[in-house]
């Protein structure tokens, strides 16, 4: 058995965390040979509910789960953590402008970034799930100057998984059969699910689907899948978000040669300005995401990627006083 790893989850009494915590406690992030300590962060009003969640985790008798800490203090929550899932965020209020939403979330993710900077373990990896995830991750990273920017990611894996699911359903194939799918950009309606390089069974996906379907149904449906689920279910997509968060962190830590979509700090690849946190085609090696380089980008792709860049730059400008 490896030494225990400490994992922090914010918004620990919420619906995403309720699915996420059981996967973590089962060893789905670090593996079945690594013990887990959980650090659960919530607002003071929800600490009682979090205690109930901890009771259920305890009752589940996970062999790998060695300790659970519950707190409303970010400094305590992130003390010594090796991985952090930043799930808790302020939802968009009725009629609230996106700039106001970003500013309000900055009050959450700025202090959390500072606490991570001051107290987390040297190998900490931070995945922001709470929306607007890309810019929330940028705010947190900016507040943690002593932590490499590459250690702060935003989750595009849910969009990636949704894209593969739609393709699998369309073509009657298993999701694991698909290679080289990527979702560029922002976790918003602007995102660009891209099948240009995708293959299934050695064949190009773009040759197997109707182009009109790809443009007019696939791309908007992947981008707006969350809203579709709310309309049908009456609640947001919590379990699939939790599952995708586990997929992202597991691959980040344990590595994968298969393409994934991860929102990471741009270093200038594909002409994308440095600094913004944006979805890119990636693989993970030695605990670090690497951008898949050398892809040919058409004018049509560039237009969609640039739209995401512009949106993320606007978001960054809206919170410039927090960076």
List the helices and strands and how they pair.
Layout (H helix, E strand, L loop, with lengths): L1 E9 L4 H11 L8 E8 L5 H13 L5 E7 L2 H4 L5 E4 L11 H22 L5 E4 L4 H10 L9 E3 L2 H15 L6 E2 L2 E3 L7 E3 L4 E2 L2 E2 L6 H13 L1 H9 L5 H16 L1 E10 L11 E9 L2 E4 L7 H20 L5
Helix pairs in contact: 1-9, 4-5, 6-7
Describe this structure in words.
This protein has two domains: 2-154, NAD(P)-binding Rossmann-like Domain (Rossmann fold), CATH 3.40.50.720; 157-318, L-2-Hydroxyisocaproate Dehydrogenase, Chain A, domain 2 (Alpha-Beta Complex). The chain contains ten helices and 14 strands. The strands form four sheets. It has a six-stranded parallel beta sheet with strand order 3-2-1-4-5-6, with helices on both faces. Strands 7-10-11 form a three-stranded antiparallel beta sheet, covered by helices on one side. Helix 1 (15-25) packs across helix 9, helix 4 crosses helix 5 (133-142) and helix 6 (157-171) runs antiparallel to helix 7. The protein is of the alpha/beta class and 323 residues long.
CATH superfamily of the largest domain: Lactate dehydrogenase/glycoside hydrolase, family 4, C-terminal
Oligomeric state: single chain
Biggest β-sheet: strands ordered side by side in the sheet? 3-2-1-4-5-6
- What distance separates the N and C termini? 41 Å
- Class by alpha and beta content: alpha/beta
* Mean pLDDT over the residues: 96
The number of helical elements comes to: 10
> Main β-sheet, in a few words?
6 strands, parallel
Q: What is the count of β-strands? A: 14
């Amino acid at each position: 058995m490896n030494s225990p790893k400490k994992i922090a989850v914010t918004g620990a009494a919420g619906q995403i965390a309720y699915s996420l915590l059981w996967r973590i406690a089962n060893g789905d992030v670090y593996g079945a040979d690594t013990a887990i300590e959980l650090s659960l962060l919530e607002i003071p009003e929800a600490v009682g509910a979090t205690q109930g969640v901890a009771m259920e985790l305890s009752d589940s008798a996970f062999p790998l789960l060695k300790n659970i800490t519950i707190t409303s203090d970010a400094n305590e929550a992130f003390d010594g953590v090796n991985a952090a899932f930043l799930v808790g965020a302020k939802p968009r209020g009725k009629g609230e402008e996106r700039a106001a939403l970003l500013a309000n979330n900055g009050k959450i993710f700025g202090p959390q970034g500072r606490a991570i900077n001051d107290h987390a373990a040297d190998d900490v990896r931070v995945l922001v799930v709470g929306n607007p995830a890309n810019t929330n991750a940028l705010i947190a990273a900016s507040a943690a100057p002593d932590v490499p920017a590459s250690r702060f990611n935003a989750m595009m894996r849910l969009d990636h998984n949704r894209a593969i699911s739609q393709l699998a359903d369309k073509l009657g194939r298993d999701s694991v059969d698909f290679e080289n799918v990527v979702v560029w950009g922002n976790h918003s309606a602007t995102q660009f699910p891209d099948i240009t390089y995708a293959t299934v069974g050695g064949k190009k996906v773009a040759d197997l689907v109707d182009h009109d379907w790809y443009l007019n149904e696939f791309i908007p449906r992947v981008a707006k899948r969350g809203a579709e689920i709310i309309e049908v279910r009456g609640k947001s997509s919590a379990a699939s978000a939790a599952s995708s968060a586990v997929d992202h962190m597991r691959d980040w830590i344990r590595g994968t040669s298969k393409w994934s979509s991860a929102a990471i700090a741009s270093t200038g690849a594909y002409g994308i300005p440095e600094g913004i946190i944006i979805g890119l085609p990636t693989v993970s090696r030695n605990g670090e995401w690497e951008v898949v380089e050398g892809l040919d980008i058409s004018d049509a792709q560039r237009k969609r990627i640039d739209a995401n860049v512009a949106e993320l730059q606007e978001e960054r400008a809206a919170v410039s006083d927090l960076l």
